[in-house]
Amino acid sequence: MTTLNNSTKTIETDILIIGGGPSGLWAANRAKELGCEVLVVDKGPLDWGGMATLSGGDFDAVLPGENVDDFVQDLVYYYDGLCDQEFMEMVFANSYDRLKDYEKLGCEFLTGPDGKLKGVPQRGLDHVKLYPARVKGTGGSDMTRGLVKRADELGVKRLGRTLVTDLLKNNGKISGAVGFDTISGDFYIFKAKATILATGEGGWKSGYHSHTACGEGTHMAFRAGAELRNLEFVRVWNCPTQFAWESQTTLLPLGARFVNARGESFMEKYCPTIGSKSDQHYNVIGMAIEAREGRGPIYFDVSRLNLDDSRVVKPQSGWQVLNYKKLLSLGIDLFTQKTEWMPQLHQTCGGLVADIEGRTNVPGLFVTGCARGLEPGLCIGGIHLCLTAVTGHRVGAIVAEYAGSQESPSIESDEALEYKNRLFSYLALNTRFRFFNNH
Fold first, then answer.
1. Which domains can be identified in the chain, with CATH numbers?
2. Are 90 and 82 in contact (CB under 8 A)?
3. Is the pLDDT of residue 353 over 50?
4. For residues 57 and 132, is the Cβ–Cβ distance under 8 A?
5. Cβ(409)–Cβ(173) under 8 Å?
6. Where would I find the H helices in 155-265?
């Protein structure tokens, strides 16, 4: 049997943050600013930044002079009433401050000739807009770099390649977690006065860069007694048949559209007011009907985009330009040609139930970002980067105050040992590492 020996490491901190994406980093930086010792543990490479690194960097915000209530009403309509209005009011009310914070961190957003932010309306809504990164292809990675640089300045401790598997409880309160280093196999016990779950939404993912958020955070929280919500929803998406692409939510409002094999823009039949600018679920239904009635395949048509608008979304740097150049070498140009598209099941939704401050029903456990499971499978471009920034900043402050009132928790070594034995027995890690070391 495995025992608590040299392969076990114990780390104690005020606040443990599980997940090193944008919401986790925002929470970590804010809590550290307020004087707490913070440890961020992420299963990916150190400072990879979760799914933010793969994003375009689009950000939703209510600018000065605009009305927060108008934005909330847009979402009440868009979500068919399944909208936490108090929560979204808080998010939109703080959105512009977080956008300005990103600018202080070195992120640049697109502006027009007048120097003002250039917004792209979303899903035919009256008020909600996304604000794209100035250089397409670097926005998400710039956000990650800015947050990581700030974490370095503050002295936030971080661990990469470490998978947290279980939350620990003592007298009904979360006292930390356990996990293992996916490279060395070292087993970790994390002791914390408060724990923040920042692991992304939902469970099963099928594609479009979403495979990294696999729902393990939701699962471990559920096993610890947390209440869940919105797991009955799934998100479908429209994707090219041959490759993945980012920016549909920008291209459609700027004039791109779906057409059938006859070249007909068919979505006006199903959504007469806004056509292809509708929610992706309506577009997918329209695509399916057209294909079933013999008018497939379906194409993404960019012929109505003007040159200035295409610059907003054409990659200029970062990982996206590598993708774009590879497609060009294969004779595919998304910005000059029609490309065949298809419906795809994107991911399952859902997450933890929490109050407006991120408190779950389990004492000592807080949640931030998309792990809250906020929306019923509908997607608005830029909303998730807005949510992660606002909730991360807010929850970081709330948890710093909470941790300041708590004593250092005790960890039951028998409980940690049980998790270790189960984990190592299941994964047979010791055998695998010996095999790899000898070959």
1. 8-232+349-427 (3.50.50.60), 235-345 (3.90.700.10)
2. no
3. yes
4. yes
5. yes
6. 216-223, 248-251
